[in-house]
Write a structure and sequence with these properties.
376 residues, 7-stranded parallel sheet, 16 helices, 46% helix, globular
């Protein structure tokens, strides 16, 4: 049995952590034993994967490092726990875990999953100077990993063009198609969630950060003269209050914060909207699509990779005027342009089962490579 150690900052429910949890929960336990190591203290509750993973019998260890403390003591702590676990493969999923593994676990075979166009995303999140430094450090850490796995083919192609001397693989992100599936009674679900039963409902979900660009949707909602449409914003982040202030006084807007039952809101809605400027392979888009929601997306390459003509509409980034026109057009239709095959499309190409099978193949090949190195 191969022991796979997954290292990540925390188990807070975010895109990369959702992918890690999906793999760990769906691994063939007769062949692989997943163990998770987090770098920073864990929170219990609906916003953490920890309770669900522990219930599934997956071992979880935390180094309980603060970001400052981790700089000075993280290396020794990680070495101790890795030496105790004795993994066959280490699989990292974020900036901190990938850099830590590169510095302190060089004797182990290492896979790093890349969840974003990090040069673009780091600059948007941390500013040009800090983002540039972080990108250089991350590039180095990725370069000394045994395998670099991008979360979509589109991202792998993009990074290969930027770094032609580095080899990238890809495994498309996958989502839980049992949890995210169409509802048979949308009206009943709306009543349960206290949502308007007879309005077109548009939902946006994600972190309120510059890369997700909630401001463009907020401005489009302001420009939409008719209030027959209803808008739901799900999530938290530094731009949340600014977005709320922009839409202050609008009665057709709901901010839910971070919620444990996002799938219910997807199932109750009519359309999913993403205003993102950059992505790896967006799980929320796949989750909404798996609930048979038409998707209204910015025309970035990562969205185009998912998109086919029956799925909805594309619009230019940061263009609230065109987005407003898209919203108005969809809102005025007598019937929703529901893509009935969305769930089947995601199940066939972007499910956690399909994703996990592909990662298992990588683990097996890397383990065989280890054997060849040992016995040659």
């Amino acid at each position: 049995m191969k022991k796979i150690v997954y290292i990540i900052s925390t188990l807070k429910r975010t895109g990369p952590t959702n992918i890690l949890a999906g793999i760990a929960l769906n691994l063939d336990k007769s062949r692989f034993k997943p163990v998770i190591v987090t770098l920073s203290p864990e929170e219990d509750g609906f916003n953490s994967w920890k309770p669900e993973l522990e219930t599934a019998g997956i071992e979880i260890y935390s180094l309980n490092l603060s970001r400052l403390k981790g700089i000075f003591t993280g290396g020794r702590a990680l070495k101790r726990i890795i030496n105790a676990i004795k993994p066959d493969i280490i699989h990292t999923h974020c900036f901190r875990s990938t850099v830590f593994a590169a510095l302190y676990s060089r004797r182990n075979k290492r896979i790093a999953t890349i969840h974003c166009d990090y040069e673009t995303d780091f600059s948007l999140a941390y500013g040009e100077i800090k983002g540039f430094v972080m990108s250089k450090v991350f590039s180095w850490a990725l370069g000394v990993a045994d395998k670099r796995v991008c979360c979509s083919k589109m991202l792998a192609d993009l990074l290969a063009r930027k770094h032609p001397n580095t080899e990238y693989m890809y495994v498309d992100n996958g989502v839980d198609t049992q949890k995210f599936s169409p509802t048979q009674d949308k009206s009943a679900l709306r009543r349960m969630l206290n949502l308007p039963e007879y309005k077109k409902i548009f939902i946006w979900a994600g972190a309120f950060i510059p890369r997700k660009d909630p401001a463009t949707l907020a401005q489009a909602v302001l420009n939409l003269k008719e209030e027959t449409a209803f808008f739901i914003f799900c999530g938290e982040g530094p731009l949340l209050e600014q977005t709320k202030n922009t839409l202050k006084g609008r009665k057709n807007v709901l901010f839910t914060g971070q919620i444990p039952n996002i799938q219910d809101y997807f199932k109750a809605a009519d359309f999913y909207v993403s205003t993102s400027l950059s992505e790896g392979l967006p799980c929320t888009v796949l989750e909404a699509l798996s609930c048979d929601l038409p998707i209204l997306l910015t025309d970035i390459p990562q969205h185009q990779y998912i998109f086919v003509s029956q799925l909805g509409s594309l619009f230019p980034c940061r263009n609230e005027k065109e987005l407003c026109q898209v919203l108005q057009k969809q809102n005025q239709k007598t019937n929703s342009t529901k893509f009935q095959q969305g769930h089947l499309y995601v199940k066939a190409k972007f499910s956690t089962f399909v994703m996990t099978q592909k990662y298992q193949n990588i683990y097996i090949k890397l383990s065989d490579y280890i054997k060849e190195r040992i016995y040659e």
